[in-house]
Design goal:
Layout lengths: L1 E7 L5 H14 L4 E6 L6 H8 L4 E4 L8 H14 L4 E5 L7 H12 L5 E9 H8 L8 H12 L3 E5 L6 H15 L3 E5 L4 H13 L14 H9 L2 E10 L3 H18 L4 E10 L2 E8 L17 E10 L3 H14 L4 E10 L13
Parallel strand pairs: 1-4, 1-5, 2-3, 2-4, 5-6, 6-7
Antiparallel strand pairs: 8-11, 8-12, 9-10, 9-11
The structure holds guanosine-5'-triphosphate (GTP) and magnesium ion.
Length: 356
């Protein structure tokens, strides 16, 4: 069994690529499964993968490293139930040190033997911005995590190349090659099937890692501070109205506007709108406004559920108040906040840290 571990910063495109790759494999008759991961409990990504009829399990309430037993249990569970050829495992976007805390323990504790490959995703615009020496978006220790994620990568997927023009792309490539030229780099547009096929071909073609990985030299205090600088807000909202769908879109737009007006840096705002059988994922990332589809057939249902996963550089209480505040103002509709959790991730305490 092959395990394709997919890391990289919040909003860099991991889930988008995994979903397309999984669909590609399923089309070609392969058995695949996905494991998602989040610090919170209600995950947009899990529901998104599920809505495409892809087998998925989730590790919640902590990173793969801190919840290693849950990860292992899901891998073993899939092995017994589906016997997949490939498992994609997406780690939390603010997580790093995957070699020592996830890959090495998986290799050392394996029973049946599996190959592991790590792909680390990066949004080309954000990476280019950092490589120009601009460090003003996030706290220094968030930048530290970003750098450590790329440092431990064998394979870097420089993603979203479609968002740059030719000149910007050439310029970004020069900076990236200068810094990371010694690593394998794939420039990708994950919205294109052709690029996804190239990525999975690369993953399939080379033998995966079955030897332990060099341990990253990392300061866990800085890592912990970087994680804690980002607030996590998960909220599930029920909207009952003739125009329930329009109201959900309005909440997304107002939430984004309120956060950006206050200059709070966004890691990722993920939304899942569920109405009847239909589910739509909408995202806003560090450098992109919400990707609300232009042509959407508005669902006829009066009841819509909106799931919000927000990762923003601010105190969790402030993030929570922004969302609750704007919901309270929308007096025309019946809007109920069903479940809500807001927190800063705690100090990362990996179950294993196997050094080489
Ligand atoms: N234009 C463009 N958009 C992309 C590409 N890949 C992903 N996106 C968009 O980027 C946003 C974030 O994508 P996700 O796949 O959810 O990112 P992620 O890395 O899984 O984020 P986290 O789960 O928060 O860590 C979504 O709006 C995607 O549609 C790409 O290659 N090009
Ligand atoms: Mg994701």
């Amino acid at each position: 069994m092959k395990i394709f571990l997919v890391g990289g910063f919040l909003g860099s495109g991991k889930t988008t690529a995994i979903k397309s790759a999984a669909q590609h494999f399923i089309k070609t008759g392969r058995r695949i499964a996905v494991i998602t991961n989040d610090q919170g409990l209600e995950q947009v990504d899990t529901r998104f993968i599920q809505s495409h009829h892809i087998p998925v399990e989730e590790v919640t309430g902590g990173c793969f490293c801190c919840k290693f037993d849950d990860l292992k249990r899901h891998i073993d569970g899939f092995e017994k139930s589906l016997n997949p050829e490939i498992i994609f495992a997406e780690s939390v976007g603010s997580c790093t040190d995957l070699g020592a805390t996830v890959i090495n323990p998986l290799l050392q504790l394996k029973e049946n033997g599996h190959e592991i490959k790590l792909s680390v995703f990066a949004d080309i615009r954000l990476l280019g911005y950092f490589l120009q020496g601009k460090k003003d978006i996030f706290h220094g220790n968030v930048n530290y995590i970003y750098e450590k994620q790329l440092e431990e990568a064998d394979l870097i997927i420089v993603n979203k190349i479609d968002l740059l023009n030719d000149e910007q792309l050439q310029l970004a490539k020069i900076l990236i090659e200068k810094e990371y030229g010694h690593k394998k780099i794939l420039y990708q547009n994950s919205l294109l099937e052709k690029d996804i096929i190239d990525w999975v071909a690369l993953l399939m073609q080379e033998t995966g890692r079955n030897e332990t990985m060099q341990t990253l030299d990392i300061d866990y205090d800085r890592y912990a501070e970087g994680e804690a600088a980002l607030a996590w807000l998960d909220e599930e909202i029920s909207i009952e109205d003739e125009n329930a769908f329009g109201i959900a879109i309005q909440i997304i737009q107002d939430f984004y506007k309120a956060i950006t007006e206050k200059n709070f840096s966004i890691g990722h705002l993920k939304f899942l709108i569920r109405s009847g059988e239909e589910e739509i994922k909408i995202s806003a990332t560090t450098l992109s406004a919400p990707d609300i589809p232009k042509h959407i057939e508005k669902p006829k249902t009066r009841n819509v559920h909106l799931l919000v996963n927000a990762r923003v550089q601010v105190e969790p209480e402030i993030l929570e108040d922004i969302l609750t505040g704007l919901i309270t103002k929308m007096s025309s509709a019946q809007i109920i906040e069903l479940k809500k959790t807001a927190f800063s991730p705690s100090y990362p305490k990996p179950m294993y840290r196997m050094q080489t």
